[in-house]
Design a protein that fits this description.
Structural class: alpha/beta
Largest sheet: 8 strands, parallel
CATH class: Alpha Beta
Strand order of the largest sheet: 3-4-5-8-9-10-11-12
Radius of gyration: 19 Å
CATH architecture: Alpha-Beta Barrel
CATH superfamily: NADP-dependent oxidoreductase domain
Number of domains: 1
Shape: globular
Number of strands: 12
């Protein structure tokens, strides 16, 4: 399917007034996967995306770390900043090579100010807590983010990979505009509890890794394209014990795409777009041709029967392997301590 010259449509994300392109651009792969891509090429890609109407750009201070925000800062120069909706994240870091999560007020403020400097801006449009700090009541973290909103350093607050109960507690302190979560044809566990909670509260949904980190684009060919240091090589779903079953899932999706006259990437993204106008997928890419293909997904129409067929291929038990390696499972959200425990310190 040829890329359409029509600009990406726009949607309301959440109920606090944020408007974004109906599809965003995840920028992590430009700096995070090995090796980092040439800076001039990535700036050109970002500019191409903005010209095509894809103005919702997603980054984080851990991407690099820090280098992805610096890259975005350079790309935003020359009047581009005024044309985009910029999202970044805090709270996920490595200390002596080990993963750590922080959501204490001092860290929240320091991280925000550091991101503002790297990005070369005075206000972040959407600022997410990247992962929930299980040691700090979510009310404390959101309380500091609320202060940053009042000070004009951020416009809207988001959460990433948060449980339904955490989302509710956070939203009671200050309206949460968006929740970022992994949602794709092969990552659908969020549909049971988290998606309904967001919709009940009027919170926008941002779907990261909507292409299964590339597997829903190219299937087993992805493995051969990864460098020796690429973090995706450690993903359980790409390990030999799971790969044979997951390849069959990809083959079924690819067969539907062939019948539709589109690519498997476009089909997977179209499935996300058909979930509702409160959902914005943010596929990442480092190539203009792939970007054009991804934008084409906005114009792929699926019937209810086609949606049901795709979902039958990725129902519970069909996709093998966890989303993350064991070490990253420590980042999964659970209930944070009650606010009273923090006040008593």
């Amino acid at each position: 399917m040829a890329a359409t010259p029509v600009k990406a449509p726009r949607i309301k994300l959440g109920s606090q007034g944020l408007e974004v392109s109906a599809q965003g651009l995840g920028c992590m792969g430009m700096s995070f996967y090995d090796p980092p891509k040439p800076e001039p090429d990535m700036i050109a890609l970002i500019h191409h995306a903005v010209a095509a109407g894809v103005t919702f750009l997603d980054t984080s201070d851990i991407y690099g770390p820090h280098t992805n925000e610096i890259l975005l800062g350079k790309a935003l120069q020359g009047g581009v900043r005024e044309m985009v909706e910029l999202a970044t994240k805090f709270g996920r870091l490595f200390v002596d090579g080990k993963p750590e999560i922080r959501g204490d007020p001092a860290y929240v403020r320091a991280a925000c100010e550091a991101s503002l400097r790297r990005l070369g801006i005075d206000c972040i449009d959407l600022y997410y807590q990247h992962r929930v700090d299980k040691r700090v009541p979510i009310e404390v973290t959101i309380g500091e983010l609320k202060k940053l909103v009042e000070e004009g350093k951020i416009k809207y607050i988001g959460l990433s990979e948060a449980s339904a109960s955490t989302i509710r507690r956070a939203h009671a302190v200050h309206p949460i505009t968006a929740v970022q979560l992994e949602w794709s044809l092969w990552s659908r566990d969020v549909e049971e509890d988290i998606i309904p909670t967001c919709r009940e509260l009027g919170i926008g949904i941002v779907a990261y890794s909507p292409l299964g980190r590339g597997f829903l684009s190219s299937g087993p060919k992805l493995i051969d394209s990864l460098s020796a240091k690429d973090l995706r090589r450690n993903m359980p779903r790409l390990q030999s014990e799971n790969l044979d079953k997951n390849i069959k899932v990809f083959e079924r999706i690819n067969a539907v795409a062939t019948k539709k006259g589109c690519t498997p990437s476009q089909l997977a993204l179209a499935w996300i777009h058909h979930q509702g106008n409160d959902v914005c997928p943010i596929p990442g890419t480092t190539k203009v041709d792939n970007f054009k293909q991804n934008v084409g997904a906005l114009f792929v129409k699926l019937t209810p029967d086609e949606m049901a067929e795709l979902e039958s291929y990725t129902a519970a038990g069909e996709v093998q392997g966890d989303r993350y390696p064991t070490i990253a499972n420590t980042w999964k959200d659970s209930e944070t301590p009650p606010l009273s425990s923090w006040k008593s310190k």
